[in-house]
Design a protein that fits this description.
- The chain folds into two domains: 123 residues, Rossmann fold; 205 residues, Dihydrodipicolinate Reductase, domain 2 (2-Layer Sandwich).
- Helix content is 37%, strand content 24%.
- The strands form two sheets. A nine-stranded mixed β-sheet has the order 14-13-12-11-7-10-9-8-15. A six-stranded parallel β-sheet has the order 3-2-1-4-5-6, with helices on both faces.
- The longest helix is centred in the last third of the chain and has 21 residues.
- The N terminus is likely disordered.
- Bound molecules: nicotinamide-adenine-dinucleotide (NAD).
- Nicotinamide-adenine-dinucleotide (NAD) binds next to helix 1.
């Protein structure tokens, strides 16, 4: 075993980042803000990407570089391996890291197939290593508090939920790396841009998906996978969830919103071109609405302090803090390994439903892989 499964509260936890592209910069910024983490090395097949990443945040220019992840893990023996490579490579690196005793911060989606996601989840159970998923929305301020209150029944029965992720990306984005928009390494707007919002919605609604019905389309982007997807999930508690995810909208106007509707109240949170909005209310006994935005903002500040609001700007800060606390205190991260497995299973159930033109039962009982969608739009 190369890495550490346990750690003391005083010694910093060693970290290596594997994959020095776009999202790695958010990881590096988060690591730079947390005193109990120490970046020991970065890995990339392209030395220029590593150089660019290390130059993007002050104080990291001299960090050790490797071009092979196995050598880096074997030599550095880090406590935490952060996996920020193209999605089709997540499985092999996550598996190698856990088999060598490392905790993981694994970017979404966990893997590209149900069997691989199950294997990674089971490996985390077997080894006791901590695995935090890059499901950023779970780390936004207020959502955790609202989830507790929904689960405690404060809003009554959950009836349904909706999300839209209208995250326009132009051809420049898709052309920036060959893996983007391919069935093998990325998937489309649902698998890449929407999976963490699906994870959040299901988490807030407090029940697992048991059936998916979906359609996907290619509208304007020149990619192999979908640039638009719509799905309906039925959850085990009987609630329905409606999903819209697309990159076919105007790239200069990114909007996303999730809403949960309950018998006695509702919650909506979202972003419109970088501006957050929030609308939470419950119903008073006299039938009037009680606005709860201020209550949650104050409560979040009281319980999470300024740090929790900083996570709104870079949720990876929250993921790293939570992962290091989980290692030190031996508890499950907020976006744990199960959330990685479950969201991949749901997403691939959505793809399978679109492919086969019928509702699909979840969890999937046999394997399904994003590459099984190859040729869907031909
Ligand atoms: N949680 C989030 O908010 C979020 C946001 C963006 C991307 N992501 C996820 O992060 C991952 C990376 O996305 P990105 O946009 O940063 O991609 P990117 O293409 O910008 O960066 C990927 C990097 O990995 C490197 N790489 C490729 N193969 C490698 C290998 N075998 N060993 C080491 N390095 C290798 C590439 O050279 C590149 O520098 C994807 O899985 C994506 O879904 C998550």
């Amino acid at each position: 075993m190369a890495g550490n499964t346990t750690a003391s509260a005083s010694a910093p936890l060693s970290v290596i980042i594997i994959g020095c592209g776009r999202v790695a910069e958010k990881h590096l910024k988060a690591i730079s803000k947390l005193k109990n983490l120490e970046l020991k090395a970065v890995v990339d097949v392209n030395p220029d990407s590593a150089k660019r990443l290390l130059g993007s945040v002050k104080g990291f220019a001299g960090t050790k570089f490797y071009n092979d992840y196995k050598t880096a893990i074997d030599e550095v023996k880090p406590s935490i391996v952060s996996v920020t490579v193209p999605s089709g490579l997540h499985f092999q690196i996550a598996k190698y890291a856990m088999e060598h005793g490392c905790n993981l911060l694994l970017e979404k989606p966990m893997t590209m197939s149900v069997s691989e996601a199950r294997e990674i989840f089971e490996l985390s159970q077997k080894t006791g290593l901590k695995l935090a998923m890059g499901h950023i929305y779970r780390y936004l301020p207020i959502v955790g508090l609202v989830r507790e209150d929904i689960a405690a029944g404060k809003y009554g029965k959950v009836t349904h939920g909706t999300i839209y992720v209208r995250w326009g990306h132009g051809e420049d984005y898709y052309k920036s790396a060959a893996w983007r928009g391919t069935w093998k390494s990325d998937g489309g707007a649902l698998m890449n841009q929407t999976i963490h919002a699906i994870d959040l919605l299901v988490w807030l609604m407090g029940s697992e998906p048991e059936e998916a019905s979906a359609m996907i389309a290619q509208r304007v982007r020149n990619i192999e996978a979908e640039d638009l997807g719509m799905a309906v999930l039925r959850l085990e508690n009987g609630a329905l969830a409606q999903i819209e995810g697309t990159t076919a909208t105007v790239p200069s106007k990114h909007t996303a919103e999730f809403s949960v509707f309950c018998e006695n109240g509702q919650l909506s949170m979202g972003l419109d071109s970088g501006k957050p909005h929030l609308n939470i209310f419950s119903v008073k006994p006299d039938g009037k609405l009680k606005k709860l935005n201020g209550y949650y903002i104050r409560r979040q500040f009281k319980e999470g302090g300024l740090f929790s609001y900083k996570c709104a700007l870079n949720p990876h800060l929250g993921i790293y803090k939570d992962l290091s606390d989980s290692i030190i205190e031996n508890k499950a991260p907020i976006a744990d390994a199960y959330s990685g497995f479950s969201s991949v299973d749901t997403l691939l159930g959505i793809y399978r439903s679109a492919k086969e033109g019928r509702p699909v039962q979840l969890p999937l009982t046999d394997d399904f892989n994003s590459v099984d969608m190859t040729g869907f739009f031909d």
